[in-house]
Amino acid sequence: MKKFENDFFIGAATAAHQVEGNNTNSDCWAMEQMPHTTYKDKSGIACDHYNRYEEDIKLMKSAGLNAYRFSIEWARIQPEDGVFDDEQIEHYRKVIRCCREHGIEPVVTLFHFSSPIWIIRKGGWEADTVVEDFEKYASYVIKALGSELKYVCTINEANMGLQVAAISRRYTMMAKKAAAAGAQNSGGEVQMGLNMQAMMENMKFQAMENEEVFGTPQPHCFNLGGSEHSDLLTMKAHQAAKKAIHDLYPDIQVGLTLSLHDIQPVEGGEARAEAAWAEEFTHYLPYIQDDDFLGVQNYTRTIVGPEEDLPVPDGAERTQMGYEYYPQALEHVIRAVAKDFRGNIMVTENGVSCDDDSRRVNFIQIAADGVARCIADGIPVKGYFYWSLMDNFEWQMGYRMQFGLIAVDRTTQTRTPKPSLAYLGSYRG
């Protein structure tokens, strides 16, 4: 094990909707309640992190972690168009100050997949108005909290819209092939908890339910897939928010995060691999090249053939999510990113869903050692945030995925740190 320098961030990450509980004004909450929901569980109280954040921050501190990446929930801060909730912003001030009191650097994400319902009713992430709406939200948050922050991620996995759209197309194609061959299609290549089978099966039933809640049969929620137009709007929203933040507090380090696969071509797949990397990463460079840092988020690799992406190799270990257990991917992705992005890099998510914590320890060891090699080669990696701090609500997959460094009893909310939490903390210099 190679320990990192004292100023390197060793931390864990969460997202508000996945851990706080009772996020009742968001699109995700609304979709969970629908009769034909694609969510396997309802988030409900989640991990009750909204009330138990101090307990969770203390667990990080005791394990030796020195940073915490968490998100502020837009639907709490702005439950209605034009209405800001000062009580909720004070809640997040308390979380930030609790981090500081325990020697934990707060790295705040302004948007992590879940939107206020009113945003979706206005056209969601396909509506031009989302840029100004997000800028106003960011300005409100930073005016209130900017004096207490050093690092802000504007949008989590800003490329997720295009990824989900591509995966949906690929899933449909693979499902047809699997049906013809009498096989099953897992759709497990996406780096977030999507229930692809239910999404396809329930589509025809959901139109009326969507119309009732969102005012449209096809709501443009961030994590349901997007077009090239929504992709551009996401970049414009990021740039508008970044400018607003820097206008208020020039010294705050601002970036966004991207979901990135380790794209590995086999012979003949080089052109497809290059096109996939362009869609996933390089076409964003004009919009992020002046950012203070880039958040890299990686979980696995994609093997690219001449005609299609190849399945997980026979005999390879799979995670609970269905994709390949491949911690080596992170180092490869960092090196690929650093060829074109010249600024600082933070690993804002990297982790594994499994019920054997020794496999999580092994995953962290291989991934973190890869990060150390990148740093030794002069790549400016400034932090590693494991996903996730605790077993949480993994979107449409519900509570079945175990990514956490901390186990959470679903009935009592009792926290039980796993050995991997202390192991991660041992990387501190």
Overall description:
- The chain has a single domain (9-425), classed as TIM Barrel (Alpha-Beta Barrel), CATH 3.20.20.80.
- Helix content is 42%, strand content 14%.
- It has helices spanning 16-19, 27-33, 49-63, 74-77, 86-101, 117-121, 129-145, 160-181, 196-214, 228-248, 270-280, 285-288, 329-338, 357-376, 419-425; strands at residues 9-13, 67-71, 105-111, 151-155, 253-255, 257-259, 262-265, 293-297, 301-304, 344-349, 381-387, 406-408, 415-417.
- The strands form 3 sheets. Strands 5-4-3-2-1-11-10-8-6 form a 9-stranded parallel sheet. A two-stranded parallel sheet has the order 7-9.
- Helix 14 links the parallel strand 10 (344-349) and strand 11 (381-387).
- The chain is globular, with a radius of gyration of 20 Å.
- It starts with 8 loop residues before the first strand and ends with a helix.
